[in-house]
Amino acid sequence: MNAPSAPNDEASLPDGLVWNRRHMLGIEGWSAAEITAVLDLSDRYVEQNRRADKRSTELRGRTIMNLFFEDSTRTRTSFELAGKRLGADVLNMSVGSSSVKKGESLLDTAMTLNAMRPDFLVVRHAQSGAPKLLADKVNCSVLNAGDGTHEHPTQALLDALSIRRRKGRLEGLTVAICGDILHSRVARSNIHLLGTMGAHVRVVGPPTLIPSSIDRMGVEVFTDLDEGLKDADIVMMLRLQSERMNGKFVPSPREYFRFHGLTSERLKVAKPDALIMHPGPMNRGVEIDSEVADDIGRSLILDQVEFGVAVRMACLRLLASTQKQSN
């Protein structure tokens, strides 16, 4: 079967939906139609990325600045590839050698970059709300690549795409998000997205790593991994974010794995065709056993990496269509 052609200059949205968001700062408040629009466009980019010639000219002349105040391999590289495959100019700003290290404030940095007239600013920051602060001050579109413990919207979108391409749907699935819920922006974005799309969401982890008010987000809460995994369609493991803990939340990585690590034995209580996910980077032997992570038939971990490029291409393309409308 021939792969579908790359999208034209005008983003093709389902059911005549007009994309009108200038920024992508979080999934909270998005409609099911908006989420579906991103996933549908991402599907087309998956096919483009599997061709020998992966480049298009849809964002030719546009400039993307990747501004990462936290270390990242997958997300930064994924955004860089996404921009280049759409024909944009991509600049990766090294915060470690930038004026930020010399005492320049975040807003001063934003105004300096804004004066260079980029079209997109991709921001990862340790403080929740930093991308929103920048979005209020700059003329370009801001994409949140992860802010503190708030949200990581493109990760939730690529997770949803990975599930939908394998299961054919999101509605009605039982998704168990397991591990360090307290510090996870990935968990929060996934809870918003999956709930909007009609999935049943569980959060599973030790009591010290479950936010006290998480049930208000419409999820079921489990502190016993075996109970939380029972009859789950999707098991999404999260990284234990030790750098945010100061040794106060779990006795040791070994004890954590004993009670909350995913093994093939524990996975037996989930549905026979349950799929395994992890946003990475993985701590093997802490959150997940290598045998489970590398199970070709059940693991979506490499799918998540692949589809992340397509999702970020779709996000950039949709924001570009909004910029075109406003000019």
Name the shape in a single word. Answer: globular
Strand percentage? 5-15%
Main sheet: strand order: 7-6-5-8-9
Number of strands: 9
| SSE arrangement, N to C | HEHEHEHEHEHEEHEHHEHH
- Measured between the Cα atoms of the first and last residue, the distance is 38 Å
Query: How many helices?
Result: 11
Instruction: Please describe the biggest sheet, giving its number of strands, its sense, and whether it closes into a barrel.
Output: 5 strands, parallel
How much helix, percentage-wise, in residues? 25-40%
Radius of gyration: 20 Å
Structural class: alpha/beta
Instruction: Give the mean pLDDT.
Output: 90
- Please mark out the parts with pLDDT under 50 across 5 or more consecutive residues, or reply none: 1-14
How would you sum up this structure, described in words?
With 327 residues, this protein is of the alpha/beta class. The protein is built from eleven helices and nine strands. The protein has helices at residues 32-49, 74-85, 106-114, 130-135, 153-167, 185-196, 225-229, 253-260, 264-267, 290-293, 301-326; strands at 63-68, 89-94, 120-125, 141-147, 174-178, 200-204, 220-222, 234-237, 275-277. The strands form two sheets. It has a five-stranded parallel beta sheet. The protein has a four-stranded parallel beta sheet with strand order 2-1-3-4. Strand 3 (120-125), helix 4 (130-135) and strand 4 (141-147) form a beta-alpha-beta unit. Helix 2 (74-85) packs across helix 11 (301-326) and helix 5 crosses helix 6 (185-196). 47% of the residues are buried.
